[in-house]
UniProtKB/TrEMBL annotation:
SUPFAM superfamilies: alpha/beta-Hydrolases. This is Unannotated protein. The keyword Transferase does not apply. Residues 114-323 form the Alpha/beta hydrolase fold-3 domain. Gene3D superfamilies: alpha/beta hydrolase. One of its GO terms (molecular function) is hydrolase activity. Keywords: Hydrolase.
Amino acid sequence: MSALARVRDAVERRLLVTSLGLPEPVQRRLAGAPVVLDGQQLATDTQLLLRLKKVARIPTAESLPLEEARAATRHEAGMAGGDQPIGEVRDVTAAGMPARLYVPTSSAGGEPLLVFFHGGGFYVGDLDTHDAPCRVLAERACVRVLAVDYRLAPEHQFPAAHDDAEAAYHWACDHARELGADPDRIGVGGDSAGGNLAAATAIHAARTGLPCRLQLLVYPATDSARDEDPDNRSLHLFREGFYLSKAYMDRANEAYVGPGTDLRDPRLSPAYADLPEGLAPAYLCTAGFDPLRDEGEHYARLLEKAGVPVTMRRFEDAIHGFFNVTGAGRSAPAAVAEVVEAVRAGLH
């Protein structure tokens, strides 16, 4: 990165942090009238963030060529994530895939391990886009986090990401001691597309007898046949204007799902899986202003019906993507803090 680019990024970052740190009444004047939909009010700092993106004419990922979309996603995540402290970050290889191990400052060895899969619609996202939330999870929950860089579409279509997730989890279970973790306290997690992979991996773990104490599902994508569900209220209410758009999801499906693929294949859509006995307890959270909200909550109910202990949390004032906003504003970091405590409780 050039010196000019670094200065530009520093200025952009400072503007973002300052704007989202203003007193709420000031933010309200800048953001405009409250946004209320489906009995929920959008957080003021989030509304301001969306307005700043619109005023700055920042292009959406789905409107950009592939490599530009990936670069833009990394850039946005870097701006919103901030500089999060961590004891150690170590590059490793998990089942042949690049991965990062995050070790908390308080580590004495033998901590629980969370295997984490990043979001990004299966076609964007990587270790860098989710570096900040992985640091926060590891440092504040006092766990080791293994973030896995699974293969992306369209270069690698379904079931590549699914197969990579299963292979990475097997590898983590087999090498937990080498990673400095407790092999009896392992969980799996992810957000959005990563939440999809985490849900499928938890099912696989239960079927094959792999240890799994927790499945962390942050606004997970669980039903690729969502367009065929007339009761999917959130898909229609929040299809545009709240960061994750219907157009983004359509591009994700086009990239990842090859011709002839059954959208109800449980490896692609966990909502159609036969849920096995012994499935790990779940912490599943959704965002109120998210087109994926209703399918995530539907999956939580399916888990409960199957006898799985489930903690379901809707952050009513949030949008899809809040998990990456760890370094600016108030509402999103507060939601992430709740997720951290759920991981601590589930794995310790």
